[in-house]
Amino acid sequence: MVIKVIEQKGFGFVEMGTSEEAQAAMDALNQTVFEGRTLRIDEARPMQPRREFDRGGYGGGAGRRY
3-state DSSP call for residue 15? Predict the structure, then answer.
């Protein structure tokens, strides 16, 4: 088992030996309370590329409507 905690972000990753172990852990721990916080256990998804925003020119940036 490999564990990596991202403390500043409030989440972490656990790599399990088998998919059955992973599912059992997710079922057992999802929505439990740990140190006053409700845990949300999900299967990790591949990282998505970050969107680049328009940082200049007419209009100023993403999401603006005129």
Answer: strand
